[in-house]
Amino acid sequence: MSRILDDWRAGAPVPLLDTLVLTNADNPSWYFKGRVMTFDQAIQLASRSEVQS
């Protein structure tokens, strides 16, 4: 994915392709399949990649 949509709110429009959606919404996977994560998940992923570097 080449774009990031930061701070998405439930019900707001979102690009359909090539965009990672970051949100604090409860249960964001209900809205999107496979291209959404919470801020906490993103921070954990970034932390793991820094440790591996």
In brief, what are we looking at here?
This protein is 26% helix and 26% strand. It has 53 residues and is an alpha/beta fold. The chain is globular and about 35 Å long.
List key phrases describing it.
alpha/beta, single chain, 53 residues, 3-stranded parallel β-sheet
Radius of gyration: 12 Å
Sheet bearing the most strands, described?
Answer: 3 strands, parallel
Order of helices and strands: EEEH
**Low-pLDDT residue spans:** none
Helix/strand/pairing category:
alpha/beta
How many extended strands? 3
Instruction: Estimate the global geometry from the Cα principal axes.
Output: globular
Distance between the termini: 21 Å
What percentage of the residues does DSSP assign to strands (E)? 25-35%
Provide a descriptive summary of the structure in words:
By secondary structure, this protein is an alpha/beta fold. It has one domain (1-7, 21-53). The protein has one helix at residues 39-52, and strands at residues 3-8, 19-23, 36-38. A three-stranded parallel beta sheet has the order 1-2-3.
Write the layout of secondary structure elements.
Elements: E1 3-8, E2 19-23, E3 36-38, H1 39-52
Parallel strand pairs: 1-2, 2-3
